[in-house]
């Protein structure tokens, strides 16, 4: 329900249900505090990175994306838009976001390089070692067969002695081959995405890579980086002596809305007072004469106390 209402507000304006003569008065301006200025300028990072690994949270102050305000904004000339400073604000925020993302990418690369350096040196069995392992394996198989035969003959002590010899040969083979077994799969390497900072694997399938490039996280960062370059070319850095334009239309609209809210609150108070009076009259009609006298007496006593307190002051 809230999503549908927000969509209608964005397309038709929050004043869509107001009377025709009041719509212009209530119509939201692009300078209003409730309007997302980043959306006006073509890209809102809150929306672009929503529910991704780089989520920057929600809009502060309940700002909304208003398409009508965006059209009003886009009707201004580039020089007029610069006077408001919204594009400067977006450019500076995008610079911070991209700088932080690049720092995360650099940190991930350093961690991967450190892990690569921790790998044991690669060792390959030379022909002599290969031959030795083969002989030990043959000898071990013969001893295993001998131990099984002794066990079947009931020669338990002799079988245990042969088993000890088998374990010794196993350890010799392990000492020769263990450095090879400890080596990780050097064909599988982590790669850092230069756009989003996601970690990819060099052995990922083409389908997995395609899902990454089509994903919201990667696409969001692609658009952020492209928008940053666009603003650098079209807007440039904020001039040192720049001052924001003061927009009277936005202030007048805010002032009118405050007056309308005050008027509505006053009407609500009047209605509450009228309702209390009606309830009091109904209660008076339903009470007995004795109850009404008691209530009048209490009211007089209360008035006397207040009068005495005022005289003391």
From TrEMBL:
Pfam families: LUC7. Residues 111-130, 232-313 are annotated as: Disordered. GO terms for molecular function: mRNA binding. One of its GO terms (cellular component) is U1 snRNP. Residues 232-273 have a biased composition (Basic and acidic residues). Residues 274-283 have a biased composition (Basic residues). GO terms for biological process: mRNA splice site recognition. It comes from the Eukaryota. Belongs to the Luc7 family. This is Luc7-like protein 3. It comes from Lotharella globosa.
